[in-house]
Amino acid sequence: MDQYGQQINISGNRIDGVYRGITIHFPGANVTGNEINNCDWTGIWLISDDAVVENNILTEAGMIINTNRPDYNPSRNIIKGNIINVGNQYWRAMNTGIFIWYTTTGNVIEGNEIRVADYAVRITDEFGQSTGTIVQNNFLYSKTGYIDDRGNSTDIANNLETPLTTPLLQETFTQKNKIIPINPYDLIKEILNK
Questions:
Q1: Which of 25, 46, 101, 112 sees the fewest Cβ atoms within 10 Å?
Q2: 17 pLDDT exceeds 60?
Q3: Is-above-0.90 flag for pTM?
Q4: Using an 8 Å Cβ cutoff, are 45 and 20 in contact?
Q5: Neighbour tally for 83: CB within 10 Å
Q6: pLDDT of 173 strictly over 80
Q7: How far apart are alpha carbons 192 and 179 in whole angstroms?
Q8: Helix, strand, or coil here: 36?
Q9: Phi and psi angles of residue 37, each rounded to the nearest 5 degrees, phi first
Q10: What is the pLDDT of residue 103?
């Protein structure tokens, strides 16, 4: 809701070549169905509570959840069904999909497809620990790691973690600004034939 009690809906936008794609300041915002490409810092910066960030496609852009304020913790946000390719471009979060920085509480990261060179989900403890984050049912493809959890009481369950090393995944990962659906049967066949 904004300062006038109105629901904030940000949907159906195409954002390309900016520093930061979408910044969410108001609680309860819905950010759905956006295509965000080539952001120098991040695609979606979430610094609020009770937001739903769902079904967005981010290429060379990721998500950062933080406030840069030790007295406020973004809480109870749902990040669901998003596709992230390549990830954040900010030096501290470089090539991560979803980067939780500073303390947060009770955020849910579920059902996302993330293809990155670094951690798909990184929960830092640099400026305090996040608590109660739920990371479940995600498809995570990475060259180096899947989930870097430095939080407290994090619930990690049922994530499909696949190294970004098979030729099919490498080809998909390197085609910039294109979302290429992976046929899971082809991927399984390729992995089994190794």
A1: 25
A2: yes
A3: no
A4: yes
A5: 18
A6: no
A7: 24
A8: strand
A9: -130, 150
A10: 82
